[in-house]
Amino acid sequence: MRVAVIGAGAAGLAAARFLTKHGADVVVLEARERVGGRVWTSDEWDGVPIDVGASWIHGTMGNPVTDLRDVFGIETVATDVESIAMYDAEGKRLGEEAQTTIHDWATGVIDRIDRPTPLRQKTDSMLTAVQAALTELDLTATFMRGVLFHLYEHFQNEWGADPEGLSARWYKDTRYEGPQEVFPGGYGQVFEQMAGELHDVRLGHRVTAVNWAGPGVSVSVAGRTAVRADCAIITLPLGVLQRGSVRFSPGPLPPEKRDAIKRLQMGVLSKTWLRFPRVFWDEDVRIHAYLGTKDGRWSSWYAFHDVTKQPVLCGLNGGRNGWDIERMPDEDIRAEAAGVLRRCFGARTPAPAAIQQSRWSTDELSLGSYSHVPPGASNDDRDTLADPLGGQLFFAGEATHRTCSQTVHGAVLSGLREARRVLTMR
């Protein structure tokens, strides 16, 4: 059996690796000049691997990415994402008691938001639930901003979308237990190792059309000879499917699949990596939270000096803020970010020596960071997107996984799911 896998991201490589181990003849077609897709470890800073895309294994217990890490012997380190220092609008660090109070209030608010009763309607957004929970609070300005910071982390920085853009019924996914771990040498190592086990990975092969009139499939590649196979696994990101960058023939995809593609949405988590001449923050703290910004913009700063062995901070901005920032020039981003850090840390803040900025929302091969379910859609749309067609077209990728979307492990699981489905054709 010959299988064409379109895309060498987490889903595509997982599918190709599994199929290869089970005797299939697999060709992987990747438009980029690298593997990994939305996992990308940049080497722009000599000797300092920077994950411009995914960074964390989100819960190591039972996670398929943990299994891959162990198979390839790749180093990871745990990060304590509960280690937070908060600074008020004037840059004064809050005391432990104040932070505990804020955390307790925020936990209570999130618990009320996450409570599914009364039953929410398909068209409801999370904004209604958030507003209802916040109206019950009577807090000082700083404490309220602290609660809003936790909400920003819970929504925008988790899902890449603002509460009004998230379905009130289907905004949560399954989570693995265990620590949150990162790769000092970069997440990209995992996928480079996976690709190294495969026989035929073709980089710089941009797929333009897939003909599944049968028998088998014919995959058109820009400027190259078409690839024929018995079937194809499509791992294109949701944003690319929405744009229609790849044509399907003899006709478009079935209406129900096109409707599912249209209803689901791509979000963005902007990652701004800044390197400094020296560490000027508390080295024992993972997250530095500035409570003086508008709508959470530039409120989340993650320290990575212990991981990269360099004075590096990563600013996270999800949802509308992320979309906006990713469209700004690097120098404007650097200036705006540095201005916020100076308000937070004062005169001891040096100018950033270098910047690396994610731009997944403007990258034509991704058009967003990862998918989410907006009001009016449901997880059934993910299942519809994953449904195979005629025993010839199979669909994988984080957007097709019902319970683990917007994660690398969800993408890996979806690739394994489709590989097993293909093997049932034998």
Descriptive key words:
426 residues, alpha/beta, FAD/NAD(P)-binding domain, Polyamine Oxidase, Chain A, domain 2, 2 domains
What does this structure look like?
This protein has 426 residues and is of the alpha/beta class. It folds into two domains: 2-37 and 187-265 and 373-423, FAD/NAD(P)-binding domain; 79-179 and 269-357, Polyamine Oxidase, Chain A, domain 2. It has 14 helices and 22 strands. The chain has helices spanning 10-21, 64-72, 96-114, 126-134, 141-154, 156-159, 188-196, 238-243, 255-263, 305-308, 319-325, 330-345, 379-386, 408-423, and strands at 2-6, 25-29, 41-42, 50-51, 56-58, 77-79, 84-87, 180-182, 201-202, 207-211, 217-221, 224-229, 231-234, 247-249, 265-267, 269-275, 287-290, 300-303, 312-318, 354-357, 370-372, 393-395. Strands 7-17-18-19-16-20 form a six-stranded mixed β-sheet. A five-stranded parallel β-sheet has the order 9-2-1-13-22, with helices on one face. A four-stranded mixed β-sheet has the order 12-11-10-14, with no helix packed on it. Helix 3 (96-114) crosses helix 4, helix 3 crosses helix 5 and helix 9 crosses helix 13.
Instruction: Kindly report the oligomeric state of this protein.
Output: single chain
* Second rung of CATH, namely the architecture of the largest domain: Alpha-Beta Complex
The number of domains is 2
Number of strands: 22
Proportion of residues in helical segments: 25-40%
Strand content bin: 15-25%
Any low-confidence stretches, pLDDT <50, length ≥5?
Answer: none
Give me the CATH fold name of the largest domain: Polyamine Oxidase, Chain A, domain 2
Global outline? globular
Category from helices, strands and their pairing = alpha/beta
Q: How many strands, which pairing sense, and closed or not: the largest β-sheet?
A: 6 strands, mixed
Neighbour order of strands in the largest sheet: 7-17-18-19-16-20
Total of helices: 14
